[in-house]
């Protein structure tokens, strides 16, 4: 009986268990059904043929939501990265400007680190300045000119109304500055190098030849000093830099100019009498005193040509001078064309070119300055010459006009620094060729020199611009021809006005009648009394 009862009860128990399991499955599915954005999604029926597709749709929708959310997060992360990078660049720029000085100022607790930071800052100032190489400049007005000096005088461009183009360093700070620099350079030259066993030459301030310097307000002051060397035509050159702090020795090198030839190129048309005067200067300074010089004359046309050739040949015979070239061009005069032809005609080794005019007077010291301030691939020299006023106005109250040598005095009453002229220049032939030479489309007077000057400024060559005491522009009456363009004619007339006399002397001429009337009144009043 018991066994039969169990057999009858088991099917019922199994059925109850099946019903319980189904009920629990339904409750679980209702609880775990995913919700939509606004309401709970409907649960597919278990036995429905679309149950599988329903679950797949739910999963796809959820996956799409997560994908959109990830894309949104990535966009926000990218924006944050961009902002962070921008802020980092700003911080770096500020650190480049101020971090060195802040480190030096704040790190007093570690003297060794402070000293290292100071040296690093000073070295960075040297790197920023034009010490080792030039920088590209936009216009001819962007170049910072040098000023030159000797033991007794300073030759300066920015004279204003109270300073003179040549003067003793009256201001104590300037005098002390230059004395300190010369003494430091002498001490550096006399410092033993530990290599040479020969008795060293003891340098003194009397060995100092000349120096140039310039100050860039955001970097410091650069000095280049030249001393006499151990032999003739040899020099010692010291480069110093004051980066708004102690003077630092940048370079100490031997400069041997014994074999450095200068090719003086003179374009010419007519003006035989001026050429005779030029050759007297050339013979004395170039041939007799210097001796390492070549002359190239590029002559335009045929008028007065035989006279010019005769002057050249006579100088050659009397001075035993064979280093000259005469080139004749049958075309209209063009200064740029003449200089360009003369430079390219040279077939020897790389040579220093001095672009000159027939109304220029130079000294042997200037020729050395020309050599010392040029370096192939690195430096070109644009000296500022001293332009002479009209001697008949300057010495009009004298009995006679002094000789030419006596007129060559650097004073406010006798002339001015021709800082608007860029025609006289020294550079190596290789640099002139590489820069592209002159613009041969420019005809007549003016413009070609500024064009070449701008080319050098736009390059990586260092342009040395400084007044020099051994280069003079001799006064001559200037003719401004009608054939010139309006811009050239304006430049010519401005140059003509500047060349006549100083402001004070021109004022005396303008008010001459008033002055004479005043003097007559003074005489009459004195007679009455």
TrEMBL record:
Residue spans crossing the bilayer: 7-31
Entry's localization field: Golgi apparatus, Golgi stack membrane
This enzyme's EC code(s): 2.4.1.-
The keyword Ribosomal protein is assigned to this record: no
The family this protein is said to belong to: Belongs to the chondroitin N-acetylgalactosaminyltransferase family.
Any coiled-coil regions, as ranges: 63-97
Catalytic activity: 3-O-(beta-D-GlcA-(1->3)-beta-D-Gal-(1->3)-beta-D-Gal-(1->4)-beta-D-Xyl)-L-seryl-[protein] + UDP-N-acetyl-alpha-D-galactosamine = 3-O-(beta-D-GalNAc-(1->4)-beta-D-GlcA-(1->3)-beta-D-Gal-(1->3)-beta-D-Gal-(1->4)-beta-D-Xyl)-L-seryl-[protein] + UDP + H(+)
Keyword match Transport: no
Name recorded for this polypeptide: Hexosyltransferase
One GO cellular component, as annotated: Golgi cisterna membrane
Classification via Gene3D superfamilies: Spore Coat Polysaccharide Biosynthesis Protein SpsA, Chain A (3.90.550.10)
Keyword annotations from UniProtKB, A to Z: Coiled coil, Glycoprotein, Golgi apparatus, Membrane, Metal-binding, Signal-anchor, Transferase, Transmembrane, Transmembrane helix
InterPro entries the record matches: Chond_GalNAc, CS_glycosyltransferase, Nucleotide-diphossugar_trans
GO MF entries: glucuronosyl-N-acetylgalactosaminyl-proteoglycan 4-beta-N-acetylgalactosaminyltransferase activity; glucuronylgalactosylproteoglycan 4-beta-N-acetylgalactosaminyltransferase activity; metal ion binding
A Pfam family that the UniProt record links to this protein: CHGN
Topological relation to the membrane, as annotated: Single-pass type II membrane protein
GO biological process terms on file: chondroitin sulfate proteoglycan biosynthetic process
């Amino acid at each position: 009986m018991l066994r039969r009862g169990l057999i009858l009860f088991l099917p019922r128990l199994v059925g109850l268990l099946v019903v319980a399991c189904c009920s629990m499955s339904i409750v679980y599915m209702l609880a775990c059904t995913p919700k939509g954005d606004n309401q709970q999604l409907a649960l597919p029926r278990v036995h429905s043929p679309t149950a599988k597709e329903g679950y797949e749709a739910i999963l796809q929708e959820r996956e799409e939501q997560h994908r959109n959310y990830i894309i949104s997060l990535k966009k926000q992360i990218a924006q944050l990265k961009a902002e962070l990078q921008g802020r980092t660049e700003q911080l770096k720029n500020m650190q480049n400007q101020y971090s060195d000085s802040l480190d030096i100022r704040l790190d007093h607790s570690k003297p060794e680190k402070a000293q290292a930071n100071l040296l690093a800052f000073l070295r960075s100032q040297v790197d920023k300045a034009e010490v080792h190489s030039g920088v590209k400049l936009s216009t001819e007005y962007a170049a910072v000119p040098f000023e030159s000096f000797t033991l007794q005088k300073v030759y300066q461009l920015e004279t204003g109304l109270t300073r003179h183009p040549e003067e003793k360093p009256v201001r104590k700070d300037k005098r002390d500055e230059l004395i300190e620099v010369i003494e430091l350079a002498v001490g550096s030259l006399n410092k033993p190098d530990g290599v040479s066993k020969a008795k060293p030459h003891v340098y003194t301030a009397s060995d100092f030849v000349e120096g140039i310097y310039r100050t860039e307000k955001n970097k410091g002051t650069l000095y280049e000093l030249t001393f006499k060397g151990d032999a003739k035509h040899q020099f010692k050159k010291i480069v110093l830099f004051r980066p708004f702090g102690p003077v630092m020795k940048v370079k100490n090198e031997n400069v041997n100019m014994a074999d450095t030839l200068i090719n003086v190129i003179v374009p010419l048309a007519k003006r035989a009498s001026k050429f005779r005067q030029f050759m007297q200067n050339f013979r004395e300074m170039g041939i007799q005193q210097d001796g390492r010089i070549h002359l190239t004359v590029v002559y335009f046309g045929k008028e007065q040509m035989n006279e010019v050739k005769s002057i050249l040949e006579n100088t050659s015979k009397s001075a035993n001078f064979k280093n000259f070239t005469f080139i004749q061009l049958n075309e209209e005069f063009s200064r740029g064309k003449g200089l360009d032809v003369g430079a390219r005609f040279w077939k020897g080794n790389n040579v220093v070119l001095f672009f000159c005019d027939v109304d220029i007077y130079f000294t042997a010291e200037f020729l050395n300055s020309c050599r010392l301030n040029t370096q192939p691939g690195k430096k070109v020299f644009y000296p500022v010459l001293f332009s002479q006023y009209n001697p008949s106005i300057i010495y009009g109250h004298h009995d006679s006009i002094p000789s030419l040598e006596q007129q060559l005095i650097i004073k406010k009453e006798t002339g001015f620094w021709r800082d608007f002229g860029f025609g006289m220049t020294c550079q190596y032939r290789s640099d002139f060729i590489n820069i592209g030479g002159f613009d041969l489309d420019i005809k007549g007077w003016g413009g070609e020199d500024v064009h070449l000057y701008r080319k050098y400024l736009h390059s990586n060559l260092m342009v040395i611009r400084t007044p020099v005491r051994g280069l003079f522009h001799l006064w001559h009456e200037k003719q401004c021809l009608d054939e010139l363009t309006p811009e050239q004619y304006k430049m010519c007339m401005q140059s003509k006005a500047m060349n006549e006399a100083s402001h004070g002397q021109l004022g005396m001429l303008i008010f001459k009648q008033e002055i004479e009337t005043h003097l007559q009144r003074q005489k009459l009043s004195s007679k009455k009394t």
